[in-house]
Structures are given as structure tokens and as C-alpha cells.
TrEMBL record:
Gene3D superfamilies on file: Nitrogenase molybdenum iron protein domain (3.40.50.1980)
Entry's Gene Ontology BP terms: cell adhesion; metal ion transport
InterPro entries recorded: AdhesinB, Bact_metal-bind_prot9, Lipoprotein_PsaA-like, ZnuA-like
Record-stated family: Belongs to the bacterial solute-binding protein 9 family.
Record GO terms (molecular function): metal ion binding
Keywords: Signal, Transport
Name of the protein: Metal ABC transporter substrate-binding protein
């Protein structure tokens, strides 16, 4: 039907077929031209544009973004709200690293997905910054009570020491300094900006540290239980005692898990139980009521808002929680 319609049309126009071909050629040429332009634009962008920094997860993103400001493009590989400890790399992570100038990681074995991802990205010009360089890792300073069911899963996790250094404001400052120095080495023309931005953020970290010291000094040796071995650095800094009951299953507490927690509470004269934001606490809640302990929320800062200032908000909430719980 359509064919005959066109035939009939061109037939009526006689020599009208020639302008039609001309039009088609013209439009193909136009197409090619715009394609070439787009390609050229995207090829030019990285070299003429800002330094591209890829960070692994939220705290490292905050610290890097705070130092870089708008002087560099800062991306995050593990989206906030996604579990970092067991993260599996996505193809877009490989692409992000392949086109980056700088990669910033927390280190201390936290980013287990990274080694393979970097290998696959084949970016020989990539500068890597280990935010925990020079920080002495803690192994088992906190008593860690492994639940029977999860023991196997957790064993490999702390082979390079505990990675949660960002939860101690003093070590967070060390991480910011490492990131600052790494960025200056990779992108020296923006040295002054990186130094000024880092100085502002470091001042805030020092104020936060003072606030922690002042508020917690009246409650020495406050012992608390967490279900995520995230606070040994914070506890050591402010003379608290973390007992980590590691990885209680969120959906179901087995009788041995319950026994484990009860025994641990008795053994260490525990003052508080701390869960995490976003975890369904129904079972822990009833357990804490049975034990006559408050169940509260302590934030390991592995999820949250991407604004670098969120670090201070979340840490001040943690301080409030600890101060109240340890009284
Ligand atoms: Zn963690």
C-alpha cells in the first residue's frame, strides 16, 4: 500500500525523485557531522576539564569532596546505603576508574572489591590515595564475640586490622591530611585551594574532638555492645569500652545468639546496646527489654547524606547517644 502510494506520488511529480535523493544524502551528511561533533566534545572534556577523582564509599567521599571543593569532579563508587563490606563491583565502577585521574580509598582492607576492579580498569595513569596510610590499625582491642552462625563470614574481614578509622575524629583528620597531600601531588596547580579547604575541615574535626572529650570524660570505661565491630578507634580515643557482638542475623535471633548476648552483657557489665540506623530492631528491642538495657542507635556513617557536613551532624548525634547511654 505504502509503496504504491509513493510510486504514485513520485510518478505524478516525474523528476521529483532527484530532490528526494539529494535530501536523503544531505540528511545523512548532517547526521554524520553532528555525531563527529559529539564525539569530539566528549574526548576533549577530561583533558581540558577538571581533575576526575573517584572515591570508594561515603566517609572517603566526604573528606575528598571537602578538600577538593569545586576544583575537581568527585565521584563515589559504592552508593550510600549500599553495604560496603561485601560490595560487588559493577561494570560502571570499572568504567569510572578507567577514566579517572585519582582514586581515593579508605584502605585497611575495607574495599575488598577494589583490587580486581582496578585491574580491570587498566588505567596506567591512575594515582591512588590510601586515606589510612600511616595509621596504625587496631586488631582485637575490643572483645569481639562472634555469633556461631556468622563466624565463618566474618573471619576474613579484619585481616588488615579494623577499617573503621573514620569514626575517630583524630584519625579522620589524618585521613583528610593524607587526601590533601595526595591531591596536591596529583594536581599541584590547585595546591592553595586544597590546603585552604582542608584547613577549614580540619578545624571542624578538631572542634568535634574537643566536644567528644569534654562530654565523655565524666563517664570513663562506659561499656557498650554493638552488633557491628565499627567503634574500637572511637572507644579507644575516648576511653569507652566496645564489646562487639558481631553480625547477629537481622531477621532471626537464634537461641544461641540470645544466650551469647545475655552472657556478654553479664560478663562485661554493659551499660548500653547499640544497633544501627536502617536495621529492623524488633528482636534486639525485645532482647534489650529482657536485659533491662536501652537499645539505641549508633551510626557507623557508612550511609547518609552526601554533603561533607553530614559527617559532623552524624558524629554529634553519636556523641549525644553515647553521653546519654553512658550516664
Ligand atoms: Zn563497617
Amino acid at each position: 500500500m505504502l509503496g504504491t502510494h509513493i510510486e504514485a506520488k513520485t510518478g505524478r511529480r516525474g523528476s521529483g525523485i532527484l530532490p528526494l535523493i539529494a535530501l536523503v544524502i544531505l540528511s545523512i551528511a548532517g547526521c554524520n557531522q553532528s555525531n563527529t561533533n559529539q564525539k569530539a566534545a566528549s574526548e576533549v572534556l577530561p583533558s581540558s576539564g577538571k581533575t576526575k577523582i573517584v572515591t570508594t564509599f561515603l566517609p572517603v567521599y566526604w573528606f575528598t569532596k571537602a578538600v577538593a571543593g569545586d576544583q575537581a569532579d568527585v565521584e563515589i563508587l559504592v552508593p550510600p546505603g549500599t553495604e560496603v563490606h561485601e560490595y560487588q563491583a559493577k561494570p560502571e565502577n570499572v568504567r569510572a576508574i578507567a577514566t579517572a585521574n585519582v582514586l581515593v580509598k579508605n584502605g585497611l582492607g575495607l574495599e575488598k572489591f577494589l583490587e580486581e576492579t582496578i585491574k580491570n580498569a587498566q588505567n596506567s595513569k591512575l594515582t591512588q590515595i590510601d586515606a589510612s596510610a600511616g595509621i596504625k590499625p587496631l586488631g582485637e582491642i575490643s572483645p569481639v564475640v562472634n555469633t556461631a552462625t556468622e563466624e565463618k563470614n566474618h573471619n576474613h574481614e579484619h585481616t588488615e586490622g579494623n577499617p573503621h578509622v573514620w569514626l575517630d575524629p583524630v584519625l579522620a583528620k589524618q585521613q583528610v591530611i593524607n587526601i590533601r597531600d595526595g591531591l596536591i601531588a596529583a594536581d599541584p596547580k590547585n595546591k592553595a585551594t586544597y590546603e585552604a579547604n582542608a584547613a577549614t575541615y580540619i578545624k571542624e574535626l578538631e572542634n568535634l574532638h574537643n566536644e567528644f572529650q569534654q562530654n565523655l570524660q565524666n563517664n570513663p570505661n562506659c561499656t557498650f555492645i554493638t552488633f557491628h565491630d565499627a567503634y574500637p578507634y572511637l572507644a579507644q580515643r575516648y576511653k569507652l569500652k566496645q564489646v562487639a557482638v558481631v553480625e547477629i542475623p537481622e531477621d532471626q535471633l537464634s537461641p544461641s545468639d540470645v544466650r551469647n548476648v545475655v552472657n556478654t552483657v553479664k560478663k562485661y557489665k554493659v551499660k548500653a546496646l547499640f544497633s544501627e540506623p536502617g536495621v529492623d530492631n524488633k528482636l534486639l528491642k525485645s532482647l534489650s527489654q529482657d536485659l533491662n538495657l536501652n537499645l539505641q542507635t549508633l551510626d557507623s556513617l557508612e550511609t547518609g547524606d552526601k554533603n561533607p557536613q553530614h559527617y559532623f551532624k552524624a558524629m554529634k548525634d553519636n556523641l549525644q547517644t553515647l553521653t546519654t547511654a553512658c550516664q
